[in-house]
Amino acid sequence: MTDRPTIADLASHVRFADRHIGPSSGERARMLAEVGYASTDALIDAAVPARIRSGRGLRLPDAADETAVLRELRELADRNEVLTSMIGLGYYDTVTPGVIKRNVLENPAWYTAYTPYQPEISQGRLEALLNFQTAVADLTGLPVSGASLLDEATAAAEAMTLARRADKRGRTAFAVDADTFPQTLAVLRTRAEPLGIDLVVADLSEGLPDADLFGILVQYPGASGAVRDHRALLAAARERGAVGVVAADLLALTLLTPPGELGADVAVGSTQRFGVPMGYGGPHAGYMAVRDGLARQLPGRLVGVSVDAAGDPAYRLALQTREQHIRREKATSNICTAQVLLAVMAGMYAVYHGPDGLRRIAQRVHRHAAVLAEGLRALGVEVEHEQFFDTVRARVPGRASDLVAAARAAGINLLRVDDDSVGISCDETTTGEQLRVLWEVFGSRLPGTVEDLDRATGDALPPGLLRESGYLEHPVFHSHRSETAMLRYLRRLSDRDLALDRTMIPLGSCTMKLNATTEMEPVTWPEFARMHPFAPVDQARGYLRLIRDLEGWLAEATGYHAVSLQPNAGSQGEYAGLLAIRAYHRSRGEHGRTVCLIPASAHGTNAASAVLAGMRVVVVACDSEGNIDLADLAAKIEAHRAELSAIMVTYPSTHGVYEESITEVCAAVHEAGGQVYVDGANLNALLGLARPGEFGADVSHLNLHKTFCIPHGGGGPGVGPVAVREHLAEFLPNHPLSDDAGPHTGIGPVAAAPFGSAGILPISWAYVRLMGAEGLRRATEAAVLSANYLAKRLAPHYPVLYTGANGLIAHECVIDLRRITKETGVTVADVAKRLIDYGFHAPTMSFPVAGTLMIEPTESEDLAELDRFVAALAAIRAEIAAVGAGALDRADNPLRNAPHTAAQLAGEWPHPYERSTAAFPSGAGGADKYWPPVRRIDEGYGDRNLVCSCPPPEAFAG
Ligand SMILES: *Cc1c(COP(=O)(O)O)cnc(C)c1O
Questions:
Q1: SS3 sequence of 771-811
Q2: What is the rounded distance in angstroms from the CA atom of residue 887 to the CA atom of residue 915?
Q3: What residue's CA is closest to ligand 1, atom 3?
Q4: What gap in Å lies between CA 411 and CA 840, rounded to an integer?
Q5: Is the shortest distance between the CB of 393 and ligand 1 below 6 Å?
Q6: Distance CA 514, CA 511 (A)
Q7: Long-range CB contacts (< 8 A, 24+ apart) of 392-397?
Q8: Which atom of ligand 1 is nearest to the CA of 718?
Q9: 839 Cβ inside 6 Å of ligand 1
Q10: Would you say the CB of residue 949 lies under 6 angstroms from ligand 1?
Q11: For a Cys staple, 260 with which of 142, 177, 387, 660, CB 3.0–4.6 Å?
Q12: Which atom of ligand 1 is found nearest the CA of 602?
């Protein structure tokens, strides 16, 4: 007998859960003592209502260590067979410049950032998004572009609803050209039906159909590759007062007359081919640009230029009053999380290549296509269109399947359009060698070389549609041509921002936890990154296995029967879940069930999604404790009994409390014939402890970019899987181009790609594999402990607003500043901005209750960081007290003037407090001090003077 540890003991020091969970066991013991419990079990028993607790642990594979999980992922990756993709249909292989791949996509300074609601610590990513907006606006020839949408198909659907809002005459028909990507058509169908929009699909080159149109959409170039002149069509639409939408390929627009000059009101599309890997369907940034007069109708986020307290230009989100978090059921759309990280990449691709580089890339793509077509003609193959950009459609009567198979045997995927034609799309990676292979597949070896044919073949772009106007003239698109310059630009921008790689981001409702490096690594492996979403499924076996595993694990974790990973954000999961409820009622002949009950405290996406799903929102009051007011619920159910479709509740509530009444709420709604939607964005407080499908809910969405470690990326990407009980499973999303994406009885697609943002699913897969059932449960317990620890430590300084049983909270706490504000004039914004001087990202401001701050520490922050945060808030409370007592000036004090910049300290100092108090309060920061690049930003100014593309450099002079 010896005390020597065994080999197995020695291996346990690499347990991933202990890396993921911040506080060590010793620290957790100290935290428990502070909260007043002897053990974690005792705390959890006291905090989580027994009636929702799951009787058993999760049945998941045992945790594996990081090396083993990477090995498993490598095996999955190896089961994917990445061929040359010439399928097209909106997804193209692209070269991600290494400097962008490593320094944006693989760089935590960019990928762990939060949505830029605190603009002073987000100037870097806001500038990057402004570059994106400027590139999109320039290329489309329209003045205002938003800061990214979820994908091309949903952007088209958003354009359709925008057109309808803009229509003053209440018309109901929307015409779509038949030569539009099939997945876009399918998503438009899904979205049109519940809104009562009559979708007319027709060949619009023959003129407008005879319908009461509020808008039209054409693809440019078309899905078939044809480049048509849409001027007359768009003029005819405008004549009728209908909004003209053009779904356009940005790369083609470097050579073709842009939509704005053709007469379009709106342009939409994808920016994937600007350096963003296909990733089996996503994530990529969709875009939308609009003409003057429609900016206030834009869905999603919009970056604008404003000024800071010194009058210097500064960026921030513009016109937020359009968005769901403020307008709720009257919002322009339900979009919250979008695709910021991917928009940053696409914008940087434009910055790096500049207008000349982009044009050359586009010309090369086009030349390959033109030469390909000429070679096919020489082989006697009929090419359908004379004029195209990158896609050649070959007529091959009866031979399409054989040719697609032969090309595949030669390592190339083509698009089988029907029995008689195939589509071939060239992209940035296309080579002459690939053209030669294709010619052999189609006929025989050509006598000449690709070079000979290149010299002998003219362009195939319509002469009347050649682009004459300039684009990307702003210096930012001309100054970063060397890799050194680009590297430093990326570094300079990320240094302006606070992301998780520098500080805790204590945001309530958003679960900013660790995004582990091991989880992130596989995302850029080519076997995952270069897969086309419509590649034959037998080439994507690794992906399919990973998808089925994750669906199964999430079903187990939530207690539901089936899961769809297609929705590419929480809002989209909500929408899919509500459509499933709608379809269920209708399948039972209950068409009149259209009322959706939503508590006053709900996240803004809930109400906006319900409206998109064709429902009417009825608000249920909350009581003074923040819980659903059961009397009001009973009254609302009674008033709408026959029309009751569903209730949408967030659990634990958006107030961060485990409501005891949840099972009664579910029962009351069920009794009246309604369905229960539990918004699962707060699953971080339930995972491993309770399962919504078990305690009474019928459907939930989860946010993998919250609970399951996909990074926020500055506001996206996300994945919002929807999980349902058995009776709703037949109504999950599906996809016209994949039999594996959902039930054939489903509601249609809610995203462009069959499995949504499949490219980032390895992150959540890895998280579950690394943690195992016990690790996930322990993470939840640590999150609840950390939140209660913070609540306890902050309570002497600030009132904690809501608590549940035993005075405990769930995973987040709300501190109430309303009285403090009344007494001292110091606002939540002052506290949030002052935290920047202390080196912290602010908590969530004024949600779910105005005048409060909501804090969610997550399980990943260690005790030192929690204590540093408590110390900062305590010191700020002392400063507030000094304002209250008159020791600090009421108007000119460090809170009101926060944040303080370095430039400000170096200049004249007119304030009645010390410079050191301004910049190094309570010794905060020291050598590691974070310096905000701008002073407090005037939000209103920017909305009154809307500027949404790169300002001229003179704006920054002096
Ligand atoms: C984050 C969140 C959502 C929205 O999710 P997105 O991915 O941003 O669309 C919905 N509900 C709650 C409670 C949330 O916290």
A1: HHHHHHHHHHHHHHHHHHHHHHHHCCCCCECCCCHHHCCCC
A2: 16
A3: 570
A4: 51
A5: no
A6: 9
A7: 392/225, 392/423, 392/424, 392/425, 392/426, 393/224, 393/225, 393/226, 393/417, 393/421, 393/422, 393/423, 393/424, 394/421, 394/422, 394/423, 394/424, 394/442, 395/420, 395/421, 396/420, 396/421, 396/422, 396/442
A8: 7
A9: no
A10: no
A11: 142
A12: 13
Burial string for 428-439 (b: 16+ CB within 10 Å, else e) reads bebeeebbebbb
Task: Report pLDDT digits (tens) over 219-267.
Answer: 999 999 999 999 999 999 999 999 999 999 999 999 999 999 999 999 9
Residue 123 CB less than 6 A away from ligand 1 = no
Q: What is the pLDDT of residue 884?
A: 97
Residue owning the nearest CA to atom 14 of ligand 1? 681
- What SS3 state is found at 524? helix
- Cβ(396)–Cβ(422) under 8 Å? yes
What are the phi and psi torsion angles at 156 (to 5°)? -65, -40
* Residue 178 alpha carbon to ligand 1 centre in Å: 35
Residue of 323, 335, 603 to mutate, ligand 1, most atoms within 8 A of C-beta: 603
Tokens at residue 782, please? 């640590």
Atom from ligand 1 closest to the CA of residue 511? 15
Q: What is the distance between the alpha carbons of residues 280 and 737, in angstroms, rounded to a whole number?
A: 13
The first and second tokens of residue 656, run together, are 């961060």
540-759 placed in CATH 3.40.50.20: no
DSSP β-ladder status, 382-383 and 616-620 = unpaired
Cα 585 to ligand 1 centroid, rounded to whole Å: 25
Query: Which CA distances in Å does 441 have to 82, 373, 385, 419, 438?
Result: 19, 14, 20, 17, 5
Q: How far apart are CA 809 and CA 816, in angstroms?
A: 15
Q: Is 703 close to ligand 1, i.e. is its CB under 6 Å away?
A: yes
Q: Are 324 and 333 in contact (CB under 8 A)?
A: yes
State how far the Cα of 193 lies from the Cα of 354, in Å rounded to an integer: 42
**Cβ(681) – ligand 1 distance below 6 Å:** yes
Amino acid at 77: A
- Residue 822 CA to residue 800 CA, distance in Å, equals 17
Distance from the CA of 602 to the center of ligand 1, in angstroms? Answer: 10
Contacts of 158 (CB under 8 A, 6+ apart): 149, 268, 288, 299, 300, 333, 335
Distance, CA of 110 to CA of 501 (rounded, Å): 9
Residue 595 is predicted with a pLDDT of 98
What would the pLDDT profile of 144-154 be if each residue is shown by its tens digit?
Answer: 999 999 999 99
Instruction: For residue 432, report the distance from its CA to the centre of ligand 1, in Å.
Output: 47
* Alpha-carbon span 651 to 905, nearest angstrom: 46
Q: CB of 569 closer than 6 A to ligand 1?
A: yes
**Domain residue ranges of the chain, discontinuous segments joined by +:** 355-456, 540-759
Structure tokens at 321: 């009053």
**Is the model's pTM score more than 0.70?**
yes
Which of 337, 340, 605 should be mutated for ligand 1, with most atoms under 8 A from CB?
605
Please tell me the predicted confidence (pLDDT) of residue 529.
98
**286 C-alpha to ligand 1 centroid (Å):** 19
End-to-end CA distance of the chain: give it in Å, rounded: 77
**3-class DSSP state for residue 106?**
coil
Residue 267, classed as helix, strand or coil, is strand
Structure tokens at 826: 């110091």
Domain made up of 355-456: CATH architecture: Alpha-Beta Complex (3.90)
Q: What's the rounded Cα separation, in Å, for the pair 494 and 483? A: 16
Instruction: Compute and round to an integer the Cα radius of gyration of the chain.
Output: 28
**pLDDT at residue 957, as a whole number:** 66
Report CA(711)–ligand 1 centroid distance (Å).
Answer: 14
The segments of the chain whose pLDDT lies below 50 read 958
Q: What integer pLDDT is reported at residue 626 of this predicted model?
A: 81
DSSP class of residue 559? T
Q: Which helix (H) or strand (E) holds 530?
A: none
